[in-house]
Specification:
Elements (H helix, E strand, L loop, with lengths): L2 H10 L2 H24 L6 H16 L5 H33 L1
């Protein structure tokens, strides 16, 4: 195994490594949410967020560290809430268009 790979594997055993990974995921989520809000809602954004939440939950099951698993599940819940918000906004827009 190359030296760099051994270093990465060693870091992966440290809880701080996973804290950094989670911070990066949060940053990506924040940027992604900003970009998604700018995109056309016709792409069914809520389905996209629900699919991402599902994938995050699947990923969380693979982690042995309970803290990391909890953080990933929390992120998945945020995606679910975002999907619910998009659905509610879409329903409100439909109601206002019909009146």
């Amino acid at each position: 195994m190359p030296h760099q790979m051994r270093q990465i594997v060693a870091y992966a055993e440290l809880p701080i490594f996973w804290c950094i990974i989670i911070d990066v995921l949060r940053h990506l989520r924040h940027n992604n949410m900003k970009q998604e809000s700018r995109r056309d809602a016709a792409q069914s954004g809520s389905e996209h967020y629900r699919e991402m939440a599902k994938k995050l939950r699947e990923l969380a099951r693979k982690f042995h560290f309970p803290g990391v698993r909890k953080e990933i599940l929390t992120l998945a819940s945020c995606y679910e809430r975002r999907a619910d918000d998009l659905d509610a906004r879409s329903a409100a827009d439909s109601d206002s268009d019909s009146h």
